[in-house]
Write a structure and sequence with these properties.
Residues 1-89 bind DNA. Pfam families: BTAD, Trans_reg_C. There is one protein chain. Helix 14 (343-353) packs parallel to helix 15 (365-376), helix 18 (432-442) packs across helix 19 and helix 18 (432-442) runs parallel beside helix 20 (464-476). The protein is 59% helix and 6% strand. It is mostly helical. It has 44 helices and 14 strands. The longest helix is centred in the first third of the chain and has 27 residues, at 134-160. Among the domains are: 1-158, Winged helix-like DNA-binding domain superfamily/Winged helix DNA-binding domain (Arc Repressor Mutant, subunit A), CATH 1.10.10; 277-426, Rossmann fold (3-Layer(aba) Sandwich), CATH 3.40.50; 432-509; 520-590, Orthogonal Bundle (Arc Repressor Mutant, subunit A); 831-940.
């Protein structure tokens, strides 16, 4: 299989094209292809497909698109892996990855051949509209830049080898599409000159000079000007500017004496600086490339260690031609060891840099600020104010006029944006491919497996300083395999311990993070420490309020301070994340007592919010007693079942994390109670996601000495095992739970476990035993006066009657019980489906279809795709038996699509094999297909009412 991204998306297998329909599935394929052979988490995929416009059920939508890809590419190609998905193809099968690998390998004698191979792969700009999204925003510019750089390098090699004419043709072919890329013009001028066409080269220079002036209001950069000067020197004596003939190109007059006075204070650029192409272009767009002139202030903000200073210096050093009167640089020391630089100190430093005698600098801040503005009034300069504490730290240093101020800070500097109209640029962690390139550049003399390098970048959280420290560790121990460092990072209680640099505080991650932490007030510090405990990848405001033990308004105020300090990021409205390494630091700063109380509050909030969600959906069950709501916690309430369901789907993974953290913190009772209340939600997810949590909950209940509560959890373990198809172990779980309930005299629990055991026995064909167990369940409920649970047992008995083909008995029993009103509020399936199965068995298809319609409407309203599939498979059987063959096939294909979307959530109810059997039978006569109909009527289509 071949996936071509360098141009319009194209997929082929054995040379034959494969059509991938739909924009979002194509985007998903492009995302997976750019990480071919590497798992990509579902959260990352959802974020890159939808960004801040996530659908109500991103997991479900993602399943849908994955299902479509699997249908056209094959299940063996698109697989589940490590909490996400993987495109199981070698990198060489994806042209963009092959392109990158060839360019990385373009070294030494093979350089030209590798460049040729890479350039040959390029068809057009990657990630067209039908496969764009975040790749178009972030990765496309990076790939285009690498392509152009490869063309430039190949042209340089052609010039050196005497193939200047070829170089001219190659560069001219692309320079029209990228007329403002000066490096292309440099190569063009060199190629024309080497081909003996110097006059054309001079004309080309005039063309690009005019373009830059007209479109950007800028002069050519230093390299392009130097190339032009060399051409002039090589062809004819330079003509002084004042004596140039009309229309003749001139050499700018040199101001040697002035140059000696121009300040050039920028620190040295990092030789191995890499990545940030998108951010550099964005900074260009709001400054030197801005049609209306640049703003007076641009603020670059981000978390500590993200590389703000290196980014600002690199940009400034490569844009010096735009600031002919010089560049000033000052570290304001807003975050770091020691006190921040005062206004007076900063103003004195800047004025001295501008040539003002120290004795002439006013002592008062306002006067010194006015002198700075006066001194810069007629100058076009760049001021880099690095490491500002906040907006007030910067204001007296702003010059106005034609100069540009570039500020870096851990603060978002919202005040500068509000009052001074500053443009802000958020600097995030590096993209995964940029992190890998960063490490490759620093590990150039050290061979390393590509997967190990990617893993190291991931462990470092794609944070530049962490990557630099890790690379230094590797170079310090050249004989140490990279896998050993990875193991060390995995084995440390905190990754910060494996990435520390205690001899250099500026490079030590703990020290860097501490400067942001120390800048907070005590209330915000406490909030930051507690956020390190948050379960899952992200946290919402209500959960945060429970974590902090405050109201929503106070939580919002506290988190806003943390967001402003770039310690927390609001990655979509109302949902907040911490960088993994910052979370490690927050956890280190917390105390055991503080952490335990906060974790208890969060688990209590989730547990009691789940109770409210179950009640809103009419699915409340309260057999197990709960601890009361913890002080300081206000659980959610829900106006509708839809609200409750949306919340549950959004928080599902986070609740699982909360269970694990609670067990780790020895909060045994809260942990297993949360597991118990997650049951209703679990029916919307594969049993493999819930079973490990239930096993943790069971162990927690047993360790807490709560045998009856453990039996309730064991009953739920049995349900998950039954849903997964492991019926023998499920029966063992139900019998074990029943034994505990019988000994404890817990009638409700005993009836529940016996009913479930009877259902599971019927599924393995032990029908007579199933009847006996269900009759015992009914007797237990009847003796205890639990009328509703007794009726639930009878409905379970009717299900077994269907399996025994005692259809009339089943219909009579169900109709009688339905006539008494709703049955068993904690049942997981509708008794009406059992009635439908019995009616199908009797050949009463019209009656069966009548009962199906309200069930289908209900599941559509609830957006329960799994429930919808269970209804549709019965409708397909009815359609087939009533000779509506086309409708039956269409209905079954719809069921297949749902299974591709949500998976097999319950093998006792519906399986892919069952649907394929039905599809194969469609088209046969009623008599030929009767054996299949009987199996449908015996409950294989779903309707089992296992109860928690």
């Amino acid at each position: 299989m071949s996936i071509c991204l360098l141009g319009p998306l194209r997929v082929t297998r054995a040379g034959e094209p494969i059509e991938v329909p739909g924009r979002r599935p194509r985007t998903l394929l492009a995302l997976l292809a750019m990480e071919a052979g590497t798992p990509v988490s579902a959260d990352v995929l959802a974020d890159r497909i939808w960004g801040e416009e996530l659908p109500d059920n991103p997991r479900g939508s993602l399943h849908t698109y994955i299902g479509r890809l699997r249908r056209v590419l094959g299940k063996e190609v698109v697989r589940r892996a490590a909490g996400g998905y993987i495109l199981d193809l070698p990198r060489s099968s994806v042209d963009a990855l092959a392109f990158i690998d060839l360019l990385d390998a373009a070294q030494g004698p093979e350089a030209y051949a590798r460049l040729e191979e890479a350039i040959e792969l390029w068809r057009a700009e990657p990630f067209d509209e039908s496969a764009g999204g975040s790749l178009a925003e972030r990765t496309r510019p990076w790939l285009v830049d690498r392509y152009l750089a490869a063309l430039e390098r190949r042209a340089e090699l052609d010039i050196a080898a005497g193939r200047a004419t070829k170089a001219v043709a190659d560069v001219r072919r692309v320079v029209g599409d990228h007329p403002l890329r000066e490096s292309l013009w440099v190569v063009m001028l060199d190629a024309l000159d080497a081909a003996g066409r110097t006059a054309e080269a001079l004309e080309a220079y005039e063309e690009v000079r005019s373009r830059l002036a007209d479109e950007l209001g800028a002069d050519p950069g230093a390299e392009l000007r130097a190339t032009f000067t060399r051409l002039l020197v090589g062809s004819s004596p330079a003509v002084p500017e004042a004596e140039a003939a009309p229309g003749q190109a001139t050499v700018p007059a040199q101001r040697v004496s002035e140059e000696d006075l121009i300040p050039r204070q920028l620190p040295a650029d990092i030789p191995s600086f890499s990545g940030r192409e998108a951010e550099l272009r964005l900074l260009d767009a709001v400054t030197v490339s801005h049609d209306a002139g640049w703003p007076s202030v641009v603020a670059v903000h981000g978390i500590g260690a993200v590389g703000k200073t290196a980014f600002a210096v690199h940009w400034a050093r490569t844009r010096t031609e735009h600031f002919p009167d010089g560049q000033l640089f000052i570290d304001l020391r807003g975050f770091g060891p020691g006190e921040p630089l005062s206004h007076a100190q900063a103003l004195t430093t800047l004025l001295i840099g501008l040539g003002v005698d120290v004795a002439s600098v006013p002592a008062e801040v306002d006067a010194a600020s006015a002198l700075l503005r006066t001194t810069l009034a007629q100058r076009r300069m760049l001021l880099v104010l690095d490491n500002a504490r906040d907006s007030a730290h910067v204001r007296p240093l702003l010059p106005g006029g034609d100069s540009l101020v570039l500020v870096t800070s851990r603060s978002q500097l919202r005040g500068l944006a509000t009052r001074e109209g500053a443009r802000r640029l958020a600097l995030d962690t590096l993209a995964p491919e940029e992190s890998v390139a960063f490490l490759r550049q620093r590990l150039i003399d050290r061979p390393a497996d590509e997967e190990d390098v990617r893993a190291l970048a991931e462990r470092c959280g794609h944070l530049p300083l962490a990557l630099a420290v890790a690379a230094e560790r590797c170079s310090r121990y050249p004989d140490l395999p990279l896998t050993d460092l990875l193991a060390e990072l995995d084995g440390e209680t905190s990754r910060l311990a494996a990435l520390e640099a205690p001899l250099d505080p500026i490079s030590d991650l703990r020290a860097v993070f501490s400067w942001s932490y120390d800048s907070l007030d005590e209330e915000s510090r406490r909030a930051f420490r507690l956020l390190g405990l948050r379960p899952g990848h992200e946290i919402g405001m209500p959960a945060m309020a429970a974590l902090f033990a405050v109201d929503i308004a106070t939580a919002r105020r506290l988190v806003d301070k943390l967001v402003d300090a770039n310690l927390v990021r609001e990655h979509r409205p109302g949902r907040f994340v911490l960088h993994d390494l910052i979370r490690d630091y927050a956890l280190e700063m917390g105390s055991a007592e503080e952490s335990g109380e906060a974790m208890l509050r969060v688990v209590s909030w989730y547990t009691h919010s789940l109770v409210a969600a179950s009640e809103a959906g009419g699915r409340h069950f309260r057999l197990m007693s709960l601890d009361p709501v913890v002080d300081g916690v206000t659980p959610l309430s829900f106006a509708t079942a839809q609200q409750a369901r949306a919340w549950g789907d959004r928080e599902w993974l986070t609740m699982g994390s909360a269970v694990r953290l609670a067990v780790r913190a020895e909060l045994l009772g809260p942990a297993y109670q949360l597991v118990n209340k997650m049951f209703t939600l679990s029916m919307r997810h594969p049993p493999a996601e819930m079973l490990p949590l239930q096993e943790l909950g069971l162990d927690a209940a047993l360790r807490a000495g709560q045998q009856v509560d453990a039996a309730y959890i064991r009953n739920q373990v049995g349900i998950s095992r039954a849903r997964a198809g492991d019926l023998s172990r499920a029966i063992s779980d139900f019998r074990g739970a029943a034994a505990v309930f019988r000994e404890a005299g817990t009638a409700a629990g005993l009836e529940m476990a016996l009913s479930n055991c009877g259902q599971a026995l019927s599924m393995i064909g032990s029908l007579d035993e199933a009847v006996a167990v269900l009759e015992e369940a009914y007797a237990v409920a009847d003796a205890a006066g639990m009328d509703d649970r007794a009726r639930g047992s009878l409905i379970g008995l009717a299900e077994v009657y269907v399996r025994m083909e005692r259809y009339e008995d089943a219909v009579r029993l169900i109709e009688e019980e339905i006539g008494h009103g709703p049955v068993d509020v904690d049942s997981s399936a509708s008794p009406r489906l059992t009635l439908v199965d019995a009616l199908i068995g009797l050949g009463r298809y019209t009656d069966a279809e009548t009962h199906l319609r309200p069930e289908l409407a209900h599941h559509l309203e609830e957006r329960n795709r799994w429930g919808e599939a269970n209804i549709l498979v019965r409708r397909a059987v009815i359609e087939r038996e009533t000779d509506r063959v086309a409708q039956a096939r269409a209905t079954l294909h719809e069921v297949v699509a749902i299974l591709d979307e949500v998976g097999e959530l319950d093998r006792t109810a519906l399986t892919r094999e069952r649907v394929e059997e039905l599809l194969a039978s469609v088209g046969s006569s009623a008599s030929e297909g009767r054996d299949v109909d009987a199996s449908a009527a015996q409950g294989l289509g779903g309707g089992v009412a296992l109860r928690p």
